[in-house]
Amino acid sequence: MALLEVKDLKQHFTLKKGFLGDKKVVKAVDGVSFYINEGETLGIVGESGCGKSSLGRSILRLIEPTSGEIKYKGKSITELKGKQLKDLRKEMQIVFQDPYASLNPRSTVKAILEAPLLVHGMTNKKERMEVIESLIDKIGLRKEQLNQYPHEFSGGQRQRIGIARALTLKPKLIVADEPVSALDVSVQSQVLNLMSDLQGEFGLSYIFISHDLSVVQHISDRVAVMYLGRIVELADVDELYNNPQHPYTQALLSAVPVPDPKQKRERIILQGDIPSPINQPTGCPFHTRCPVATPECKTEVPKLQEKTFGHWTACIHV
Amino acid sequence: MLRRFFASPLTVIGFVFVLVLLVLALFSPQIATHDPLEVNITNKLQPPSDEHIFGTDEVGRDIFSRIVYGSRISLKIGLLVVLISFPIGTILGAIAGYFGGVVDQVIMRMTDIFLSFPGIILAMSIAAALGPSIENVLLALAVVWWPWYTRIVRSSVLSIKSSEFIEASRAIGANPFRILFKDILPNSIAPASIQASLDLGFVILAAAGLSFIGLGAQPPSPEWGAMLSSSREILREAWWAATFPGLAILFTVLGFNLLGDGLRDVLDPKQR
Amino acid sequence: MDALRYIAKRLVLMIPILIGISMLTFFISHTIPGDPARLILGPKADAEVLEELREKMGLNDPIYVQYGRYMAGLVQGDFGDSTYSQKPVSEDLKRYFPATLELTMFSMVITVLIGIPFGIISANKKDKIADQLTRFMALIGVAMPAFWLGIILLLFFYLQIGVLPGSGRLDTWVSPPTHITGMYTIDALLTGNWEVFRSALMHLILPGVTQAAVTIGMITRMTRSSMLEVLRSDYIRTAYAKGGSQNRVLYGHALQNGMMPILTLLGMTFGHALGGSVLVESVFSWPGLGKYAVNAITYLDFPAVMGVTILIAVLFIMVNLIIDIFYQVIDPRLKYD
């Protein structure tokens, strides 16, 4: 059984416009389905604005999904409230993009790491300190640094504190929302390696959200590509990077620099900008920019289908 | 932080003014040279001298001693009004900003009503309705003052609310009140507290103004505004009776202003 | 079209605020002990007569009925009768208001003429001696009890030197000009009556300067910080880099953009000046709304107090509305949200 199953998840936001309230709907996530196994890392890539962050937040119930179902260990969590929702927090956590904004500037590291334990009723101070001290050891901070404030740390250190906070409750699943994109390249790999190590040690599953294809390739087992709130392609990492099927994935990958200068790859340049999620194109959301679009693409919404074994694509031309 | 605070000479001046005010209020009996209420008709309208350094008023009371005792009244009003309105305003602002929706609408429309016209006028009509006394002026000022803090706190809460560290707190399952009091308020209270320190001076100024038009402290209270009010009758004969209470108010307001500006420079360097 | 809709929307939004203000003042002034009927008739009045007057004034009705009656009158411009002067409050307001308006406008003119240039100079010479001095003066202005400054000015210019009059709106031997706006200086100008104009202007100087002292401080500070922000921006540096002259950049580019927040503050300052008029008018025996209000307070004349409060609230809201609309006109980026 998969650890987490997401079925036809939709996350729509209503924008109020005008005095009389003619409403506009932003379809940030528009019918996304996937699963993730225990100990697995699922990468989610896409350009900014494709809805990948909303997806992460609605899985965690930080924002309320508009419709669809999320099952954790076979049980639906979409309707959980109160105590049960709070218990779910122990199972799933999040690591944020901006290590400067994700830590309360007026709390010490100790207070930041202690908060989850306090909230979940660990009243024994000694127990709390044991948890905290073992965690900061793992992320490479010293005990004396516990009483310092976030601004006294570097970006990489802060992000590691953010990871430690996510781990205090010993969750099974962590949604990492662009966890390294705010960091210097030199620091990125340190944090990625730390995440890999912790994954082995705690048996974690990651949903790893990023716009950076090489980072996703480095850490993921499987990768989903998102465009305008939908998954357009999903496959094992090697399969997806070596044999991309969807024209959007092909275009994205063609833009990634290749280390081998002899290897020639044709760069596919997409025309136009990503359409606004308020006025989504009809039919295939990608048809406005697609190099192989045909008239049918304007009317027919392609379904995500398993075209070859374990390789899912949403395109009528594949 | 302290060194930065005292780096500006103006801040130091403000600090000294406020300190002097505190000392005057705390040690009034020791500092005053006379009984502030003691009438001595034969000694009336004396110009400043060694015996009466600020002179005497129309019934021979020592103006210096009256000003010294008056500092107690002013400081008490300033502190109480801020101590009442600041927590009320702050909590309402935090609730409005954090919960949004209908609660926000109701609270903000309430502040609109209060802020939509000059506070002194509203305070005046409230104090007038309650009847002239210093306690009623205090109450009236507290009633008109809280919306300022609500506005300030709400806007800083709004800017902090969407921070990732607030989401992080929600992700660990913290309840809204924990988030409000542990995460949001500590980060949004700085601008409001700067305002509060400035307001100590402005409250004292407003209270003196209301006493001046006969709404606050009543004679023979040595309240500075009331003293100024009665000095008008003897303006021609005794310039000192009008001059010194006014200077006391000026220095007090100036002191809290400079102190507040100093605080702002330390806590919120962007504002400069 | 959009502009009209915006104005209409803003006017509609004024209604709840005005209802709120009237309720606030009405309920406070009516739940407090104190019997207007007794005040009119004096302490020795007969119980029966007293009861009769109470009934006639509607004081025996439940408070919400009294409020409803008051509001019903208010929408027709009827503020009730002053319990002191026995005349309709609206008539009193009409008589006292022009004096306050004249004083406030005069002080605002001084404020703008002095405050804005000093704010610009201060920003342009940031941290130089001129800036330090201006900032210090502005601070003094803000911290100054206006009613005290008034007394000191009175002491000096009226009692000591005697160059300026110290109370009222006109010299005793001058009769008021023909009533057009009710503002003596303007009416005198319109009728070409120079003697009256001179007298009215002389009388305006002390209260006007007194009132302006505080608002000059506020405007100077705001202009300075607003200009500093603009001067720091890239397009100003570009303008200098292109070789634009100091004055051209300062007054051509910077002031245009720095004006926006200053305008908003002018609206708030206007409210401050209106509020301050209560104290200043009381110092200079200026027969305006402030003086009227203070009198009303002394005689527990609540219809009058409420009338002044509501009138000032309406004025203040209107001024800010006009400024907001003006804003929309001069800043093409703003949409009517």
UniProtKB/TrEMBL annotation, chain B:
Q: Which domain of life is it from?
A: Bacteria
Keyword Transport tagged:
yes
Q: Which residues form the ABC transmembrane type-1 domain?
A: 71-260
Q: Which residues form a coiled coil?
A: none
Q: Where are the transmembrane segments?
A: 6-27, 77-100, 120-146, 198-218, 238-260
SUPFAM superfamilies (alphabetical):
MetI-like
Q: Does the keyword Ribonucleoprotein apply?
A: no
Q: Which Pfam families match?
A: BPD_transp_1, OppC_N
Q: Which InterPro entries match?
A: ABC_transport_permease, BP-dependent_transpt_permease, MetI-like, MetI-like_sf, OppC_N
Which Gene3D superfamilies does the entry mention?
Answer: MetI-like
Task: Note the topology in the membrane.
Answer: Multi-pass membrane protein
Which keywords are on file for this protein?
Cell membrane, Membrane, Transmembrane, Transmembrane helix, Transport
Q: Where in the cell is it found?
A: Cell membrane
- What family is reported? Belongs to the binding-protein-dependent transport system permease family. OppBC subfamily.
Indicate what this protein is called per its UniProt record: Nickel transporter permease
Source species: Robertmurraya mangrovi
Automatic annotation (TrEMBL), chain C:
Tell me the InterPro entries matching this sequence.
Answer: BPD_transp_1_N, MetI-like, MetI-like_sf
- Transmembrane feature ranges: 12-32, 103-124, 136-159, 200-219, 262-284, 304-327
- One Pfam annotation, family name? BPD_transp_1
Presence of the UniProt keyword Transport in the record: yes
* Domain ABC transmembrane type-1 as annotated: residue spans: 97-327
What SUPFAM superfamilies does UniProt report for this protein, alphabetically?
A: MetI-like (SSF161098)
Q: How does it sit in the membrane?
A: Multi-pass membrane protein
Q: Where in the cell is it found?
A: Cell membrane
Q: Does the keyword Cell membrane apply?
A: yes
Main subcellular location: membrane
Which keywords does this Swiss-Prot/TrEMBL entry list? Cell membrane, Membrane, Transmembrane, Transmembrane helix, Transport
Per the similarity annotation, which family is this?
A: Belongs to the binding-protein-dependent transport system permease family.
Its protein name is ABC transporter permease
